[in-house]
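Researcher: Next sequence.
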Amino acid sequence: MLKQSASRLARVFAGVAALGVVGVLGAWSGSESRSEGKTITIGLIAKSQTNPVFLAARTGANDAARDLGKQYGVEIKIDWQTPVSEDAQKQAAYMERLVANGADGIAVSCSDAKTLTLAINAAVDKGVPVVCFDSDAPESKRFAYYGTDDFACGKQLGAELVQAMGGKGVVAILAGNQTAPNLAKRVAGVKEELKKHEGVKLKDVYFHKETAQDAVAKLEEVQRTNPEITGWAMVGGWPLFTDNALDNIAGKAKVVAVDALRQQLVYVRNGQVEVLLGQKVYEWGYESVRLLVEKIVNKQTPSDPVVRADLVRVTRENAEEYGRQWAKWLGEDKAKPGSKTGG
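Model: Next structure:
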């Protein structure tokens, strides 16, 4: 009896050991083959579908999915989960949904850092890596941020405006969403630069909903009630997405703005805007996907988690050349592959 029991126990232990080996081999095989034959799904959460800069980012993400898919022998899908207009709560909900649906990584531009930090941390805690682009959540568990040095951007914007105004006058700052961390840093940069110039006075900072119509309405209201304003520093180019936006400003105030999209270039060409500072909006998507795929496939992260993107100074002299790039950035020269739409 004892011999039979011992024999049965030996067989059980052998079976358990065999299962353990199979389990280990299975786990090893899955991780090692991740770069071969697997579909990688990257969630892309921008601030809004109505801002063309994020459409360029979406094109960049799709292009990166195509290029890196070929490089690593995998299918990479971009799952576009972006609110129609800015809504940090919806962004957080989309992130939760992406995690629940099995996304392998997520890229997000944060409308509100505090709200998104909680969502980012929850995603990372469940094993989903997150990268921020354009607007960061620096206190979160995101492993990288790709985008503009916003404080430096604000300083450059302020310097460009002071030069255009001849070193004297009254400045207003058009600032979009008051809770967006990237815009707050740009505003701080403008203010810091203006302090250097005794002949320049800051009137105030003006916030608004980030649509062209709301931005134009705020711009016209402020200029009408404060005719002493002789310069506008726009930390985002929201009014310039619509026609005739500066008709009530022209001749009264100099204008400089961040972003240099196709619609906005018209204002540089006609002289109503002195300088546009173009961001790497296409690269927001491309580089975010590249960073995520490198982490997912190769377990690699950048040595510095903050990856800076340079600005491009756009004036009347180089506006045409710069504008020709937008056909690519908006995906007009090809169909957009592998993209799903969420709302």
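Model: The first strand starts at residue 39 and ends at 45. The domain at 36-148+281-310+326-342 is CATH 3.40.50.2300 (Rossmann fold).
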